[in-house]
Write a structure and sequence with these properties.
CATH superfamily: Outer membrane protein transport protein (OMPP1/FadL/TodX)
Strand content: over 45%
Largest sheet: 14 strands, antiparallel, barrel
Structural class: mainly beta
Helix content: under 10%
CATH architecture: Beta Barrel
Length: 281
């Protein structure tokens, strides 16, 4: 565990010198390695602390305490991400989460960094529904800068035990900053024993007459109850870019390490992300 912690903290420190493409400035990619590996199809899972920012309604899906550290960077675009997430869905029926992310991005005179802190809670309604709400404070240093608060909301529907459907809205309070865009997401995830297929779509209508959509899908296979093997595909209609991703993991009783690599097929993005996770029941 000491070696894993040193590795994760090293990744977090490395993000301080990174910047990213202007096309990624909505700050929507606050994910862990597992999610990048599966084509960003994750909002219906509820497996990790990414639910705090991705869809808070997923927090109560599994009863446990979680701590996760994530660090990564894109050497093709110069984008950097570091984050820590804490989640508690074991103390009561209500799920709670707290996350902090540091993102470094922009080019030349537009170089900037963002500090994002999110608090989330979710309430299950029977076995079928779960409702979630999040409040996020963002400080963006650079131009355009902001020191503001926004919120998100989500719903999870589980029509059958193995299938989860998700919908969420993000940055619902207008911040009037081009880096903090309002968007909506829809996802589906199936738990089929050792296999977990997933699909996500996001929709951004901030630009009149020019909606932005992303479509992502992925698959996870758990080998020998210990080694997750993941793959995914993502298409961004705004930039007309295609991404292939893959990842591996090692875990025991929910604790372990995940590594992901994402490759842009028609561009220069080359992304590596590592997540260290600890789970307690």
């Amino acid at each position: 565990m000491t070696r894993w912690l040193s590795l994760a903290l090293g990744c977090l420190a490395a993000t301080a010198a990174a910047q990213t493409s202007p096309d990624a400035t909505h700050l929507g990619e606050l994910m862990n390695a597992r999610n990048f590996a599966m084509g960003q199809a994750y909002r219906g899972h509820g497996y990790g602390t990414e639910a705090i920012d991705g869809n808070p309604a997923a927090l109560p899906l599994y009863k446990r305490y979680q701590v996760e550290l994530t660090g990564g960077g894109d050497w093709g675009l110069g984008w950097g991400l570091g984050g820590v997430g804490l989640a508690d869905s074991a103390s009561s029926d209500v799920g709670f989460g707290l996350s902090y992310h540091f993102v470094s991005y922009g080019r030349d005179e537009t170089k900037r960094s963002a500090h994002l802190t999110t608090v989330a809670a979710a309430l299950p309604i029977g076995e079928l529904f779960s409702l979630g709400l999040s409040v996020r404070h963002q400080v963006i240093v650079g131009e355009p800068h902001t020191n503001s608060v926004t919120m998100g909301a989500g719903v999870i529907v589980r029509p059958v035990q193995f299938l989860t459907l998700a919908a969420s809205g993000h940055n619902l309070i207008g911040v009037w900053n081009p880096d903090v865009r309002r968007f909506f997401s829809f996802g589906a995830s199936a738990n089929l024993g050792f296999f977990t297929p997933a699909f996500d779509m996001t929709a951004d209508f901030e630009d009149a007459g020019a909606p932005r959509f992303t479509f992502g899908g992925g698959l996870e296979w758990i080998a020998a109850d210990t080694f997750p093997i993941r793959g995914g595909y993502l298409y961004d209609t705004h930039t007309q870019t295609h991404f292939l991703s893959a990842g591996l993991g090692l875990f025991e009783e929910g604790s372990g390490i995940d590594v992901a690599y994402r490759h842009e097929l028609n561009g220069q993005s080359r992304l590596v992300v590592i997540t260290l996770k600890a789970q307690f029941r």
